[in-house]
């Protein structure tokens, strides 16, 4: 509601034009923080960059992604003819033989899009890579601020659809984890160190997926009376507890999925043998 006392733009400044706008307090210093505020965005940028470099190398490698009974989560499901044969595994060759590139490129778009549009990761890479803003109470260097109202950032709004895609992907990774209870001869009822790696990874993947803000809204949003929807209310409470740890789960699942792939890579490239527990 207009009160008539709102600050007016100074002449020559564009309304709505960033933190140097004339409507803001005239403080010359870029910020007044004396702590090492740059540490968090720098660490975030370094961590995300490391994952991007590693996952790009592995996605284009098109090799060493399967060692019975384990398949790398980067290559699951494997949807082209050029997939390695995996007995009862997720090699469903629906793309046929015309696809000549790495089969990982067919599926990574879904988990990648899910993370790229995630509310937490958005904050992380806006701060880490774009300095927009670099930290709380630190002015961003950009002259204009349009938020996510214009192309291309307006596309971030498709996050909930990536959530719908991420759920079946997590289901397929669960299937891969069940298959990890076989030995290298496909006999059931066995476990190796890799089975534990897969178990930890799938728990973290599900925890991250279900802690999604879109999931929380889908489960408990648009309700006027929780008392009339006790099941959804209970589920909303569970998701809310996970949601409070979304940042932690985002990092933990990112590291675990990379380690899971690395484990399969080391087995498939004969760097070592999977220690069998039974
Ligand atoms: S908000 Fe992070 S996955 Fe949906």
Task: Give a quick rundown of the structure.
The chain is mainly alpha-helical and 278 residues long. Helix content is 47%, strand content 1%.
Q: How would you describe this protein?
A:
With 278 residues, the chain is mostly helical. The protein has one domain (39-268). 47% of the residues lie in helices and 1% in strands. The chain has a two-stranded antiparallel ribbon. A hairpin with a 2-residue loop joins strand 1 and strand 2. The structure holds FE2/S2 (inorganic) cluster. Residues 114, 118-120, 159, 163, 212-214, 246 line the site of FE2/S2 (inorganic) cluster (FES).
Structural class by helix and strand composition: mainly alpha
User: Beta fraction of the residues?
Assistant: under 5%
Uncertain residue segments: 1-15
**What Rg is obtained from the alpha carbons, in whole angstroms?**
23 Å
Distinct helical segment count: 9
* Helical proportion, percent range: 40-55%
Element pattern in H and E = HEEHHHHHHHH
Distinct ligand kinds: FE2/S2 (inorganic) cluster
β-strand number? 2
- Span of the ends, CA to CA: 69 Å
Give the strand line-up of the largest sheet.
1-2
Q: Mind describing the biggest β-sheet?
A: 2 strands, antiparallel
* Outline type: globular
Any key phrases for this structure?
two-stranded antiparallel sheet; mainly alpha; binds FE2/S2 (inorganic) cluster; 1% strand; 278 residues; globular
């Amino acid at each position: 509601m207009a009160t008539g006392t709102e600050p007016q733009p100074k002449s020559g400044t564009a309304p709505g034009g960033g933190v140097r706008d004339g409507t803001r307090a005239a403080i010359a210093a870029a910020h007044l923080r004396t702590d090492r505020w740059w540490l968090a965005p720098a660490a975030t940028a370094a961590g995300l960059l490391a994952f991007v470099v590693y996952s790009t190398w592995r996605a284009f490698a098109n090799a060493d992604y399967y060692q019975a009974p384990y398949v790398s989560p980067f290559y699951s499901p494997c949807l082209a003819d050029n997939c390695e044969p995996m007995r009862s595994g997720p090699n469903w060759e629906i793309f046929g033989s015309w696809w000549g590139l790495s089969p990982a490129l067919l599926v990574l778009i879904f988990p990648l899009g899910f993370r790229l549009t995630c509310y937490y990761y958005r904050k992380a890479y806006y701060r880490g890579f774009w300095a927009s803003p670099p930290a709380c109470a630190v002015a961003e260097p950009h002259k204009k601020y349009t938020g996510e109202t214009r192309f291309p950032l307006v596309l971030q709004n498709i996050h909930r659809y990536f959530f719908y895609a991420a759920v079946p992907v997590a289901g397929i990774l669960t299937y891969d984890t069940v298959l990890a209870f076989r030995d290298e001869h496909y006999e059931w009822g066995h476990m190796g160190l890799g089975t534990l790696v897969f178990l930890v990874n799938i728990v973290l993947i599900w925890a991250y997926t279900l802690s999604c803000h879109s999931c929380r809204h889908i489960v408990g949003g648009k309700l006027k009376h929780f008392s009339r929807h006790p099941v959804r209310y209970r589920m909303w409470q569970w998701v809310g507890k996970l949601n409070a740890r979304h940042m932690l789960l985002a990092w933990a699942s990112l590291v675990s999925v990379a380690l899971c792939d690395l484990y399969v890579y080391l087995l498939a490239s004969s760097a070592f043998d999977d220690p069998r527990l039974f």
